[in-house]
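Sync notes, pocket subgroup
Present: LS, DG
LS reminded everyone that the earlier model was apo-only. Rerun requested with 4'-deoxy-4'-aminopyridoxal-5'-phosphate included. Inputs:
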Amino acid sequence: MADLNTATSSIDIQKIREQFPILDQKVNGKPLAYFDNAATTQKPLVVIDALVDYYKGYNANIHRGIHTLAEKATKAYEDSRKVVQEFVNANEVEEIIFTKGTSEGINLVAATYGRQNVGPGDEIIVSGLDHHSNIVPWQILAEEKGASIKVIPVLEDGSLDIKAFEDLLSEKTRIVAVNHASNSLGTINPVSEIVALAHKAGAKVLIDGAQASAHLEIDVQALDCDFYAISAHKVYGPTGTGALYGKRELLEAMPPYQGGGEMIKNVSFEKTTYNDLPYKFEAGTPNIADVIAFGSALEFVNDLGKPVMAAYENELLRYATQKVGGVQDVRLIGTAANKVSVLSFIIEGIHPFDVGQMLDARGVAVRTGHHCTEPLMDRFGIEGTVRASFAIYNTKDEIDNMVEGLERIVKFMKP
Ligand code: PMP
């Protein structure tokens, strides 16, 4: 590819692409254009190497071993925790709990803090933009406790109705759980404002950071949120791991999530005592290799610099919004002023699955469907969208290829 359109960026996209071997392939005979980054990002060599190095060189169970491999594995695992702490700017490393991902982080809070603090008649507020992962755990909790769920409405441009949120808040509100950025529309939510309003009403706040972690600066101390959940695989890391930040005093007071090895101090049939933070919440042998590679992924992002990455991705989003928006019969879904690099759209009269399949024939990987946000699709009266989501290795040439595909689809599918 000749022109990689690095115009406004100080980064060399070709060099970055070389670090992602998966990108250098043909799909259906055409060069792969991978636009499904909101579902999962591709992994750079440093991440793949971290996994291989661990299994080839120092695979051992962590924390209890005194032999050299166990000590090396433990150090690498705990070093990752430090990297995550700095990545979200947590005050203390003990406030970082490794999880399977964002879903598990949210489930953990619902099942521990939620069970302990939500009762009959209480209210939990989520938003109409939320992923099923940030809806269903709260529904399970509400059902168990006789509490109810209130929903912040979504405006026509895909942003949240903050005035309506203020009206929903009351002394009954125990928890507010919203995403930092929407996976379906890309909307960036005013989380600082949401946290401040919720705290004024006496509620705790969990932020689902799954879509923010690769694009937005995260500072849990400045935000003053109570919990913040992320997934490694959305930020160039491996699947099956992620992290939950929680304020120390809350984590200390919460009951354990799961029982097992590692999360205990002493066990007897008369009385078991629990381990200190963060181990109290990490029962059993964790996903050691992936946690280590998670750290490598975050270091990859730190090395490039998130503001530089975001500037480039925003440029791709602007370009794609203009180009795709100009295709006949395309309706963009989600046009909020502040967005991460997610472009959702439908072509009137053509099913999103058909669009996705036809783009795949050109080597263009997009996601189609409800994106695990069925209530949001209902809000817009649609079954689903076509979603192109951009990462640091994407290019304007790839977007041009997608747009050409869309134009052909409209030409041939429309009477
Ligand atoms: N929340 C949002 C906004 C997401 O985009 C996702 C993943 N699509 C999740 C939660 C769940 O993340 P995971 O599947 O990694 O647990």
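DG: Confidence is low (pLDDT under 50) at residues 1-8.
LS: Residues 101-103, 131, 133-134, 179, 183, 208, 210-211, 231, 372 surround 4'-deoxy-4'-aminopyridoxal-5'-phosphate (CB under 6 Å).
Action: DG to write up.
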